[in-house]
Amino acid sequence: MRKITAGLFMSLDGVIADPQDWHFPYFDDAMGAAVDAQLGSADTLLLGRVTYESFAGAWPAREAEGGPDAAFAEKLGDARKLVVTHEDRDFPWRNSERLDGELTAAAAELRNGSGGDIAISGSVSVVRQLLAAGLLDELHLLVHPIVVGKGERLFEDGTTIPLRLLSSQTFDTGVLHLVYTKDATAPSGSYEDAKTHLAQEE
Q1: 126: closest CA among 33, 11, 16?
Q2: What are the respective helix, strand and coil percentages of the chain, to the nearest 5?
Q3: pLDDT lower than 70: segments of the chain
Q4: Is pTM beyond 0.85 here?
């Protein structure tokens, strides 16, 4: 079975919107390696339309320019790119096509097929739907030590999704790289249960 992973930049107060406004001062080699491990190692990218258009407007040119990020740009270009959209449109970036069918059913079929990892970057609506459906194997959050104060957050009000921490790493910039997976055996309890632990500490 293939693995579906998602990577997002996040502020300390949970904002994932407009990372171009607050993310770049914290980017370093350690973060670059983390992004490459999650996104650059996949042979298939699953992207929302807005994220795809942003990537397609930047990465082909960076690959052609041959700068420091050209090798990463080439990886993205070589990967199969499936765009989640209801619109029938052309996709100029090589190896790009529209995802056929309803998202969760198509993602489940991809996950059960052959091949390498399937990676998501940004694309918050896609991430939310796959999380809710239990189809996201790893959620990579790069939590930045900054409070943005406004903008869309990953988790909407009323959302309850138990997660289990797989790994954590702290970069020199103060960014936390947290990797979560779904937790099928999440703990439960009440205030009465918690009081028993307080009694033991006393």
Answers
A1: 16
A2: 35, 25, 40
A3: 198-202
A4: yes
